[in-house]
Amino acid sequence: MTASALPDLLPFGFVDAHHHVWAPDSRGDEIGYGWLRDIGAPKPFGDPTAIQRDYLWDEFLSETLLRPRASVHVQTDGALPDPVAETRFVAETAGAHRVAIVGLADLCAPDLARTLARHAETPGFAGVRQIVSHLPDAPGLSFAPRALLSEGAWRAGLATLAEAGLRFDLQCYPEQMFEAAEVFAAHPQMPVILDHAGSPRNGADATWRAGVAELAKLPQVSVKLSGWGMFDTAWTAESIAPMTAHLLAEFGAERVMFGSNYPVEKLAKPYDAVLQDTARAVALTARGALPHVFLDTATRVYGLDYPSA
After folding, report:
1. CATH number, domain at 122?
2. 106 contacts 148 by C-beta, under 8 angstroms
């Protein structure tokens, strides 16, 4: 398959449900971007040097010939001094492009409600991601400094988020999924989106498969087919097909969506290859699922509004 085949495969277009834009060079003093300015410092997904630079809307929207009809921007740094500044920057620079914004908020912070109210002043603000991926025996793979899911203050903050009618993007490891399911079961009205296919760092092993099945029991949880290169830089449609099939079987196509994870995924492969290989993996299981995975699910879950094709 070539990029020129994408319009035939996805004639309805697509929504990118997970990507980033950032400006550590031009706006770093204003917004922060600590890890993006710490050149070469290793991350759980590898050496980030090649993407530790400004990556703005023009570049993102030019990555593929099949321009996304809309997208979901997800927060980029868990330690921003004022995460609302990032939300404002994303909205102010998006131009005519339709975007939903998932911002950062520390759910343990005493001023959480005020932070959420400030985020909500920006059109398009849709929810929060605070990464909870934590492995106590593998600090080098942990994004979160401690086991946030287990903390009473964090759980109280999650209740505040739910009461505000917002979404939560969940990035966790398979070992955390049973606890996550217990936590989110208490908030059945809050949409929860499992990022990066549930972080299958060991592929479709028993831990990942069981955790996915447990989270899928909660009707408010959906999942993104994204972030494959964080765990396997040489991934192909065939290598992710078993995981894609399991996610489709457990969640149903109506709760599965595509995300590029660009520019992080740029470390693994070109955007069109991400798009077409994910589409091929879905088609290997259920070609009829493509409109849901690439357009309808993200549109509904994130409340996106964009012109008809």
Report:
1. 3.20.20.140
2. no
Q: Please check whether residue 308 lies inside any domain of the structure.
A: no
Instruction: State how far the Cα of 129 lies from the Cα of 218, in Å rounded to an integer.
Output: 19
Beta carbons within 10 angstroms of residue 267's beta carbon: 19
What does each C-alpha distance from 141 to 29, 87, 167, 233, 268 come to in angstroms? 28, 27, 25, 16, 18
Q: What does residue 225 show for φ and ψ, rounded to 5 degrees? A: -85, 90
How many other CB atoms sit within 10 Å of the CB of residue 82? 14
Q: Which residue matches tokens 């868990």?
A: 78
Chain segment 185-232, per-residue pLDDT in tens:
999 999 999 999 999 999 999 999 999 999 999 999 999 999 999 999
| pLDDT tens digits for range 254-269 | 999 999 999 999 999 9
Rounded to an integer, what distance in angstroms lies between the CA atom of residue 107 and that of residue 19? 22
Number of CB atoms found within 10 A of residue 254's CB: 14
Q: What is the Cα–Cα distance from 190 to 222, expressed in whole angstroms?
A: 11
Question: What range does the domain containing 45 cover?
Answer: 12-301
For residue 69, the 8-state DSSP code is S
- Distance, in Å, from the CA atom of 29 to the CA atom of 25, rounded to the nearest integer, reads 8
